[in-house]
Structures are given as C-alpha cells and as structure tokens.
Amino acid sequence: VFLIIAGTAVFINNQDAGHSARYSMESSKLLVTLHEMTREVQRCMDGESAAFDKLEQIRADIPRILDVLDRGDSSLPATSGTAREALTTLTFTMSKGLQDMDALSAGRAGLVTLSSAVSVIDAASAGLLTLTQQMIDSYSGSQKVAAIRLALAIERIAKDASKMLASDMSMQQLAQLSLD
I need a labelling partner for 64 at 20 to 30 A (CA). Which of 50, 71, 84, 178 fits? Predict the structure, then answer.
C-alpha cells in the first residue's frame, strides 16, 4: 500500500512539475510576443507596411496564448489560484491592447501614405535647399530676403513632416503643425 501511495505521489509531483514547466513556457511565449508587438507597433507608426503584416500575426497569437493559459488544453489544466488573479488582470489589459492594435491596423493606409509622403518631402527639400542657397548667393535686396524666407519655409516643411511620423508627438503638437 505504501508503494502505491508513494508511486501516486511521485506521479502527481512529476505531473505538477510538467504543468509548471508548460505554464512557464506559455508565459515566456507571451512575453516574447509582447516584446515583438512593441517593436512592430513602433515600425507601424513609422509607416512600414511589412510591420502591419507582422502585427496581424502577433494579434492572432496573443489571444491564443492567453486562451491556453486561461482555459488550459488537453495536457494542461486551466490556471488557478493566485496566478488566476494575475491572468484575469492581464487578460483585461490585453483586451484594450488588442483594440488599440485593431485601431492601428485600421490606420495602415494613412500611416504608409504619410511615410511615403514624408520621404518624398525629404528628398525634394534637399534639392530645393540647394537651389534656394544658390538664389540667396546670387540675389540681393528684397529678392535675397524672399529667397531666405523660402529656404526657411522649406526647412520648416521638412521638419514638420518628419514630426508627423514621430510616435511621441502630443495632440497639441500635431494641432500646432496644422496651424503652421
């Protein structure tokens, strides 16, 4: 009888250790996926089209991993105990994060277009600044003043266009750009 009880205890202990390892593996997958999400969101904000494709995959992976941790599967029981409270909080927080990812994905066309427009503006402004510098060097009087103003406006346009892609721009700063 003692051997049967001892054998059962060892089996249960090994099974619990296996479950703990699997919970750790799934949690690690989630951590890596969230790290990738952070990187891809930044790339999306920069208007990189390929980042949106990667973000879609991440968007699909997060709920799947959370579901395995939440409900378990054929070889893993549902999360319970104190880990359940943390998982419930994380799941609630991630539901908002997933909505934000959906909103970002909905803005894909605009962000990619904006990125392309900023690239064109940057390329064009470099050439225009060279031309305006030639104008400044060769003009005098009011024409020179006008050429200087044109050069400053070109620099401001390029600077403001680049700011529009900055992910740390506040709504007030964006509104100010629209006034300039």
Answer: 50
